[in-house]
């Protein structure tokens, strides 16, 4: 009798645990199915450039796109809100087919706007004019539209960068000057074959902390040879080529100054720089 009672209790516990297990499994399946259905019905909000580098005092676009599951759908009723982490107020808000800027942070007054003609096609990107150092940070784009709802983020880093100009000096050396860089970059020169060359570089600061880069490739340089000047900081790498023709230095026709952007603050070795330039040179030949 006592043994049967124990077996009965064990059986009841087993049944109870089994029921709890089934409830948990079924609940999980329901949540999973609802999550899939919800995500399908809500479409996609995304950024093709989640890490963006803005050039100081110039304009930058923070990319944000939204898509439904219906191809070529145009959106008529769209709400878009741009926020910046750790900042009160909105960067920009759009509702009822018009800007709603009552709650806009003063930092962005008369500097932020959307591409209003492209919103119906799924473009919620933000144009930020005259980029400042204090604009750096994480921005969040939230979109609500028929069949679409979601948020994506864009990490904006701010630097100053410009392409160098070249001059051949009387002593046969090659002089390069770039008027706007921040943070302070490193400068390297490479021969046409990718060999690292001897050079000297100066950085001249202005009152705002932005620096002018002045670099000299020790001569004499050879006529009809192409030399590559690399200017790079943690955010931007500029790759510029100069071909020496007589007493004139010209940018080669098939190459310009290439800017390569990175959101990582890591230093690149000379070997990595040489490898990058060789890849660029091979690609444009």
TrEMBL record:
PROSITE patterns recorded: IG_LIKE
InterPro entries according to UniProt: BTN3A2-like_Ig-C, Ig-like_dom, Ig-like_dom_sf, Ig-like_fold, Ig_sub, Ig_V-set, IgSF_BTN/MOG
Pfam families cross-referenced by the UniProt entry: C2-set_3 (PF22705), V-set (PF07686)
Keyword terms, alphabetized: Disulfide bond, Glycoprotein, Immunoglobulin domain, Membrane, Signal, Transmembrane, Transmembrane helix
Cellular component per GO, a single term: external side of plasma membrane
Molecular function as annotated in GO: signaling receptor binding
GO biological process: regulation of cytokine production; regulation of leukocyte cell-cell adhesion; regulation of T cell activation; T cell receptor signaling pathway
Principal cellular location given in the protein's record: membrane
Domain spans labelled Ig-like: 58-157
Transmembrane annotation, as ranges: 12-38
Source superkingdom: Eukaryota
Compartment list: Membrane
The protein's name: Ig-like domain-containing protein
Native species: Sinocyclocheilus grahami (Dianchi golden-line fish)
Lineage: Eukaryota, Metazoa, Chordata, Craniata, Vertebrata
Record gene name: vtcn1
């Amino acid at each position: 009798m006592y043994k049967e009672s124990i077996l009965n209790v064990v059986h009841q516990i087993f049944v109870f645990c089994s029921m709890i297990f089934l409830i948990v499994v079924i609940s999980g399946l329901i949540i999973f199915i609802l999550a899939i259905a919800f995500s399908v019905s809500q479409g996609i909000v995304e950024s093709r450039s989640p890490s963006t580098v803005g050039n100081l005092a110039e304009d930058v676009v923070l990319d944000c796109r939204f898509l439904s599951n219906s191809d070529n759908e145009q959106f008529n009723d769209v709400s878009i809100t741009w926020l910046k982490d750790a900042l009160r107020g909105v960067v920009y808000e759009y509702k009822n087919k018009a800007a709603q800027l009552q709650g806009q942070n003063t930092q962005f007054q008369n500097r932020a706007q959307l591409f209003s003609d492209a919103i119906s096609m799924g473009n919620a990107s933000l144009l930020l004019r005259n980029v400042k150092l204090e604009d750096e940070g994480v921005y969040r784009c939230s979109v609500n539209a028929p069949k679409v709802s979601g948020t994506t983020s864009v990490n904006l880093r701010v630097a100053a960068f410009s392409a160098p100009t070249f001059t051949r000096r009387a002593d046969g050396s090659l002089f390069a000057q770039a008027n706007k860089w921040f943070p302070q970059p490193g400068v390297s020169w490479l021969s046409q074959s990718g060999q690292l060359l001897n050079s000297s570089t100066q950085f001249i600061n202005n009152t705002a902390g932005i620096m002018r880069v002045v670099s000299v490739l020790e001569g004499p340089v050879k006529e009809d040879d192409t030399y590559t000047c690399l200017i790079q900081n943690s955010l931007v790498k500029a790759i510029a080529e100069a071909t020496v023709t007589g007493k004139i230095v010209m940018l080669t026709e098939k190459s310009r100054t290439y800017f390569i952007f990175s959101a990582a603050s890591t230093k690149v070795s000379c070997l990595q720089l040489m490898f990058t330039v060789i890849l660029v040179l091979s690609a444009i030949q």
